[in-house]
Amino acid sequence: MTLKGKLLAAATIAGLAGCAHAPGFQSTSVNGEVQDQQAFPVYPEDDHNFFYTVVPAQITFITGADGRATGLVLQGGQDVPASRIE
């Protein structure tokens, strides 16, 4: 089975793209990496929720009223919040 992400509007992607960091995790653009491991792409399920195809994990973006991401939560066994550091 091949999982494919939803197509998002360019403005939505622009609001989410950036850099977020939590201990042991960093997200850049629409890739995420666990510290000292390879970065993998994430795919949109909807405007705020993205999933990996290589590990059972998801990322939920937290956005402000302007649609710009202020942080995210990595979900994969436990919830790991990350703040935008751009």
Q: What is the radius of gyration computed over CA atoms, rounded to a whole number of angstroms?
A: 12 Å
Question: Count of DSSP E strands?
Answer: 9
Total domain count: 1
Envelope shape: globular
**Element order, helices and strands?**
HEEEEEEEEE
Number of helices: 1
Biggest beta-sheet profile? 9 strands, antiparallel
Percentage of residues in helical conformation: under 10%
Q: Per DSSP, what share of the residues sits in E-state strands of 2 or more residues?
A: 35-45%
Q: From the helix content, strand content and strand pairing, which structural class follows?
A: mainly beta
Name the features.
86 residues; mainly beta; globular
Explained architecture:
With 86 residues, this protein is mainly beta. It has one domain. The chain has one helix and nine strands, in the order H-E-E-E-E-E-E-E-E-E. The protein is globular, with a radius of gyration of 12 Å.
Summarize the structure.
This protein has one helix and nine strands.
Task: Produce the secondary structure layout.
Layout: H1 10-16, E1 19-22, E2 25-28, E3 31-34, E4 40-41, E5 43-44, E6 49-51, E7 58-63, E8 69-75, E9 79-84
Antiparallel strand pairs: 1-2, 1-9, 2-3, 3-4, 5-6, 6-7, 7-8, 8-9
